[in-house]
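Notes to self after the call with IL:
- keep both proteins in one doc
- input above output, always
- annotate only the second one for now

Protein 1:
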Amino acid sequence: MRVVIAEDSVLLREGVQRLLADEGIETVAAVEDGDGLLDAVTEHKPDLCVVDVRMPPTFTDEGLRAAIECRRRYPGLPVLVLSQYVEERYAVELLAGGASGVGYLLKERVADVKEFVDAVRRVADGGTSIDHEVITQLMVRSRRSPVDSLTPREREVLGLMAQGLSNTAIAASLVVSDGAVEKHVGNIFAKLGLEPSNSEHRRVRAVLAYLDS
């Protein structure tokens, strides 16, 4: 796997690079701003971009906007965003811009090496990995949507789906049967107006409907 890292903090940039190297993942470019990210993606055509949200010159949302632009120029380019905060507007825009290969994690997750590497591989393979805290904050800010019709358990299942877990993994996490999870997933699809299906595309559409609510 070939990765481009965009992070203005030298310590974190080098730390992520070494962590990935220990897992046999090559960093082909490590840059410190949005323009550098766009140039590196154009030059290297990486398998994944790991991008900080706040970078020079204003340290607001340059990284996230650059990630969205990368996805616009190169549809399907896997992008894993790292942030100390939940940037609501651009988070939804990034996630809604494509049905695969997107992730949004809070930086504290990097400390959990296994969780972070799992997210890197999942997103690079076209899956999703959305931090539970991101889901929670966006959910709290949402008002009057089809998501409101979900039961507490269905919301819990959808939150775990957003983190990229399979039905089997969700069942293990909630200590219920696979059949129970499949029933919840079917109910979620129905309430969100999505045809029931276990395909990745339908799962991601459900998550996007959740975030866009």
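Protein 2 (the one to annotate):
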Amino acid sequence: MQITRLFLVRHALVEPSARAVVYGSMDVALCELALQQEAASYRWLAARLPERARWVVTPLSRTRATAAAIFAAGYAPASLEVEPDLAEQHLGEWQGLSHERFAELIRHPAHPFWPHGAEEKPPGGESFAEVVERVSAVLHRLVQETPGQDIVIVAHGGSIRAAIAQAMQLTPHQALIFSIKNLSLTRLERHGADWRVAAVNEEPFTLPAQA
């Protein structure tokens, strides 16, 4: 049985001005200070990710910049394929609003661990349930195109949760329970017709110095 392995990395922390608003699929820059402070995380990813993998990013520059930082930390540079349907959830007319104003506009109960529910569809945008549908279709295609090989995907919290929903056959609401931290690694495997979840939100860990 061929096993196709997917290594999903959430992009690095974005700049403070972007974090002050609900940015969704807006193209915002990475935080320069965090890029310096997280040097060890990039080195860990450069060593942890498989060699000679197929690399996929989204049209948003924060995923390409994160991939470039991983290459600079020691991973042999690879060509980057851009996949639009792995982008973050598009929040339509509500993108760019403050978190407080966004909370005033939602029409369904917020998720316990997310600013909005899975069925919330902002005007001119999409719901998280729709994100799950488009991400699922991309994962199936990538696995079909690259059987038995490794794929590194630098994406977003929303699209990685959507990938987990596909692998575990979760509802969109259930998928929003997962914490996906910046620069964390989620590993999914396709074994024939079945998905296996190898790790979620994997992060570098350093043992404390002995007393």
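Annotation: The longest strand covers residues 194-202. The chain has eight helices and six strands.
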